[in-house]
What does this fold into?
Amino acid sequence: MLLRYAAFTDNPASGNPAGVVLDASTLDPTEMLRIAAEAGYSETAFLTPVPAAPRRYVTRYYSPLAEVPFCGHATIATAVALAERIGPGRLTLETIVGEIPVQTRARDGGGYEATLTSAPASSRPAAPASVDEALAALDWQPAELDPRFPAHVANGGNDHLVLCAASRERLARLDYDYDRLGALMALEGWTTVHLVWSEAADRYHARDPFPPGGVVEDPATGAAAAAFGGYLRTIGAVRPPARLTIRQGEDMGRPSELAVDVPSGSGGIDVSGIAVPIP
It folds into this structure.
């Protein structure tokens, strides 16, 4: 049975919708892709319980077009769906990118919050030619970037190109060449382009074009948030341990809030959020 949740929000009409299938043990990849395409969300998570290992699940993620190695918002949605059925506590998801531990807890006033720990996060400078092509597809000018934040390819389970706008107004005007950017992302292996504006040292606004998944824009991207936390750690923009907030989806009319905890060292990044069922 397909469940539907909105992640990183307490409003079913906001956040990022995700599909969740709690027992996909009888489904093959073709069937999973079909269900994800019919759901039409940026990702749907498919779980297979591991025998004799309570609270451990083999987990696959599918966009409407293809399998995705890791998805943050569908992980948060999955964890809340499980907490509602088996109670809060620790979960372990066996994904293509490795084991993803998730902790769920009850919220004051009802509902549940979940925290995932990403795969070890890393970040590297993006190739100048790739950045130039991305800017051309976005119709952005190099002068519209914030010089404090160099263009990088960041990874917290998937690769994401990180570009930081110098103004909120530049971030708000997103009207890009879908086919051109999609072709570049397919060539580079980027899952999203993580477009960010820094409101403060611990508060950011983001937008994520997602052509590889058949989605123009993702309203809340947990995997990109984890990668961005690792990026900030790599370039020295935060002093770990640090917590930051990412606001996303506002320009789409689906506001979302993601909490990102950046630990010291070179490990994974914690991303926290709430999720609610979609009626």
